[in-house]
Amino acid sequence: MIKLTLVVFLLLMSGCVAESTDFVGEPATDELKSDLASLDNFDEELMDLDEFGTEEFNF
Amino acid sequence: MNKIMIMVFVGLFLFGSMQVEASLNDKDQRLMGEYDSLRGEYKLVKEEWSNAKEEYISAKKQYKRFDKLSVDEQEEKFGIAKNFVSKTLERIDAHINILANWAERVIQDEELQNEVISELNGYLLEIDEFQLEVESAKDIHQLREISKDVREYWGSTRVELKKYVGIILTERTNNVISRAERLSERLHFKIDTLNQDNDQVMEMQNLLSDFDSKIKFAKEDYSNAKAVYSRMDNLQDFDKLLREIKDYLSDSKKYLRESHKSLRELVKIYRSFTGDFPNLGDSE
In this complex, do A32 and B267 lie within 8 Å of one another by their Cβ atoms? Predict the structure, then answer.
């Protein structure tokens, strides 16, 4: 169990390290990276339209 | 030791957040505040809608014909159905408010922004009217008539809203492109003042040229996406056209990500060459 936790932790850390190399410390450059990352799931937030319908209105 | 590490990480996180916060202007801060509040409201409304739906479905299973129920049972089931219709309208309303907030935040073209917000406000007014009708419904027959209208209304409105989703997605990508273009301008200015015969400066010029061409490609895809939303007139094509927009924007994002790689390398070399970051912020 401890080994498994350690492996998961190391995997997570390696992901964080890989991600952090995208940032160089210059604020405007890093803001562009953050802007780009925020575009990734943006459409899902706006597309919550088809999930709910009014088909159940059958009183 | 662990506590100290946690405090250091939390401190660094908060410091980073403060820096981003400080770079936002007053209007952006107001809109961000409104957005956070709208998101919170939407989450709550969605949960209430979900509960109202569950309650309605469960009530519906308990009878086959409404008119066979006792007066008390009819009153109870009528209240449950009414609440479900009302919560559905609230959810639509909350969703459109979020779209309007995004439109105000990301659409830079004032005329387009006003047009989109005005049309979204038009939907909100219609929903308010439906809500009043639901509130004043006295019996199940009236509620059935109103629900039929709401169903038809939402059937076409949820498709129409995809046009505004397309516009917001496209214009938000354009904002990232504009930010990249501003960085490019500042970098040209800074690098052009350096000794052009130096190898590192030549490498920076090459990376800057690569950065510019990736931004150009991203902008071409943005223009293509914009052309698609401009021809969203026929409801039947909206799903197909929104997919086209998303494909163009996906390519645009790909080029922007590549452009950032060049920019990142460039900034590293600049720092190694001059001993300091180029400082590309708005204050420069």
Answer: no
Nearest chain A residue to B250 by CA: give it.
Answer: A40
CA B165 remoteness from chain centre: 8
Report the chain A residue with the minimal C-alpha distance to residue B243.
A43
The ipTM is: 0.72
Say if residue B3 is exposed, middle or buried (CB neighbours under 10 Å; 0-12, 13-18, 19+). exposed
Q: What is the pLDDT of residues B48-68, one digit of tens each?
A: 999 999 999 999 888 888 889
Task: Look at the block and give the residue holding tokens 């350096």.
Answer: B194
- For residue B245, give the nearest of B167, B172, B175, B158 by alpha carbon: B167
- B177 in A contact zone (CB under 8 Å): no
Asked if B20 and A34 come within 8 Å (Cβ–Cβ), the reply is yes
Nearest CA among A56, A52, A49 for reference residue B55: A56
